[in-house]
């Protein structure tokens, strides 16, 4: 099994830990889910590769500004189920790549990624996260 090269827009399977789970003392997420890589960076050549991911969920958030809807054709292209899906922007996880919480996609032979978000959708995600960051209305949960 080899891990994909992490790059912004890549959708991976990951054990995403929500802040409310962490607040209750959880160290492990309750479920694995698709997540989009938002940032993949090394501060120096000696540092670990750090990744920040946004979760994909079926549950629409109460605040419409806290998500970006994924069009049905993109869900199909990525191999996600037929239900409506959202990229959430108010909660993110950060970790050293590949970390302990990267998961293989069920039914595959050790594949960890679904594919890339279209550039236009990734730009919407990025702008929505930056807007939340400016308003100080997003949380990043470190996972290592």
SSE layout and pairings?
Elements: E1 10-14, H1 19-23, E2 33-41, E3 50-57, E4 67-70, H2 72-78, E5 85-88, E6 91-96, E7 113-116, H3 119-134, E8 139-142
Parallel strand pairs: 6-8
Antiparallel strand pairs: 1-2, 1-7, 2-3, 3-5, 3-6, 4-5
What features would you describe in this structure?
There is one protein chain. The protein has helices at residues 19-23, 72-78, 119-134; strands at residues 10-14, 33-41, 50-57, 67-70, 85-88, 91-96, 113-116, 139-142. Strands 1, 2, 3, 4, 5, 6, 7 and 8 form an eight-stranded mixed β-sheet that branches. The model has no long low-confidence stretch (mean pLDDT 92). It is an alpha+beta fold. The chain is built from three helices and eight strands, in the order βαβββαβββαβ. It has one domain: Thiol Ester Dehydrase, Chain A (Roll), CATH 3.10.129. It is 19% helix and 31% strand.
| Rg result | 14 Å
List the helices and strands in order.
EHEEEHEEEHE
CATH class: Alpha Beta
Number of helices, where a helix is a run of at least 4 consecutive DSSP H or I residues: 3
Largest sheet: 8 strands, mixed
Low-confidence stretches: none
The termini sit apart by 22 Å
Share of residues in helices = 10-25%
What fold name goes in the CATH topology slot? Thiol Ester Dehydrase, Chain A
Number of strands: 8
The fraction of residues in strands falls at 25-35%
Mean pLDDT: 92
Give the overall form: globular
**What's the architecture in CATH terms?**
Roll
Question: How many domains, as an integer?
Answer: 1
> Structural class, please?
alpha+beta
